[in-house]
Write a structure and sequence with these properties.
This protein is about 25% helix and about 30% strand. It has about 280 residues and is α+β, with helices and mostly antiparallel strands. The chain has 2 domains: about 60 residues, Arc Repressor Mutant, subunit A, CATH 1.10.10.10; about 160 residues, Chorismate lyase-like (Chorismate lyase, 3-Layer(aba) Sandwich). The chain has a 6-stranded antiparallel sheet with strand order 6-7-8-11-10-9. The chain has a two-stranded antiparallel ribbon with strand order 1-2. It starts with a strand and ends in a 36-residue tail after the last strand. It comes from Streptomyces eurythermus. Pfam families: GntR (PF00392), UTRA (PF07702). InterPro entries: Bact_HTH_transcr_reg (IPR050679), Chorismate_lyase_/UTRA_dom_sf (IPR028978), Tscrpt_reg_HTH_GntR (IPR000524), UTRA (IPR011663), WH-like_DNA-bd_sf (IPR036388), WH_DNA-bd_sf (IPR036390). This is GntR family transcriptional regulator.
């Protein structure tokens, strides 16, 4: 099989080297320009029409479209076509709930219970929750929605011994964290969170209304209360094409100096006032 490529200008700093750009990639860039000129939710032309427009095969067009779907620029709906994606939602890397994150963006949060029941703690889960191996763990699997759209599959694990009756409390309180605070007097204070990528399984793809094998964001959160006692371990699968993560970073030991004058121009670092932030120790 051959790949349709074209020459491009050599990259600066690499004299004598000419980049070879696949045809699908050039088409992808043109499709992206087309999508950016349309409103979210607008339909893209059919594959056969795009193939005629770009004088190429439908296979090449499909590859370009698939990459844009994977990047969250387009949405593909089975039996309907390809559409310009809605703007990505953001999730702050701090100890907030799905409900808080969605409401902060003007969206209506909701949850659909997929499964709830007790399981015995294996060695790893026992260590995470600070309980004995074989002790009962409440496992709660929920589909998280934002204004009706499925966004994540969240599986939470909590000690049954520490939170007796929690299963019934969830029917009364609007969120898990509210139930923990109101019924058990437990407030989350800190957590360790790991973010990885994974490909969607058939079940995950069906629940999240996406294609099998598309990139997902896999989050693991281990939360503790103010005394450092483990509260929960959560595994969440997010639609990678619909989310971006936002965090405020600061250098350890750094001191932030508030700007009092205009920032310098990017091409003239020696003039124009102080920097937006100055960090000691750099």
């Amino acid at each position: 099989m051959t790949t349709d490529v074209s020459s491009a200008h050599p990259h600066p700093g690499a004299p004598g080297r000419t980049a070879r750009v696949p045809k699908y990639y050039r088409i992808k860039q043109q499709l992206l320009t087309m999508a950016e000129a349309l409103q979210p939710g607008s339909a893209m032309p059919a594959e056969r029409l795009l193939a005629v427009r770009f004088d190429t095969s439908r296979t090449t067009v499909r590859q370009a479209l698939q990459e844009l779907v994977g990047e969250g620029r387009l949405d593909r709906i089975q039996g309907k076509g390809t559409f310009v994606a809605q703007p990505k939602l953001y999730r702050t890397l701090q100890l907030t709930s799905h409900t808080e994150d969605m409401r902060a963006q003007g969206l209506t949060p909701a949850s659909q219970m997929l499964d709830i029941g007790e399981v015995p703690a294996d060695e790893r889960l026992a260590g995470l929750l600070g309980i004995g191996i074989g002790e009962r763990v409440l496992r709660i699997e929920r589909l998280r929605l934002a204004s009706g759209d499925p966004m994540a599959i969240e599986t939470t694990h909590l000690s049954v011994r520490r939170f007796p009756g929690l299963r019934h409390s969830l029917a009364t309180y609007p969120s898990l964290y509210t139930a923990l605070a109101e019924v058990y007097g437990v407030h989350l204070a800190e957590a360790d969170e790991t973010i990885e990528t994974a490909l969607s399984t058939p079940r995950e793809a069906q629940l999240l209304a996406t294609d099998v094998g598309l990139p997902m964001l896999l989050l693991s959160r281990h939360s503790r209360d103010a005394q450092g006692t483990p509260v929960e371990w959560v595994r969440s699968v997010y639609r990678g094409s619909r989310y971006k993560f936002v965090a405020a970073l600061r250098r350890p030991g750094g001191t932030v100096v508030r700007r009092t004058t205009a920032p310098p121009a990017l091409d003239d670092p020696g003039t124009g006032g102080e920097r937006a932030t100055a960090l000691d120790g750099l």
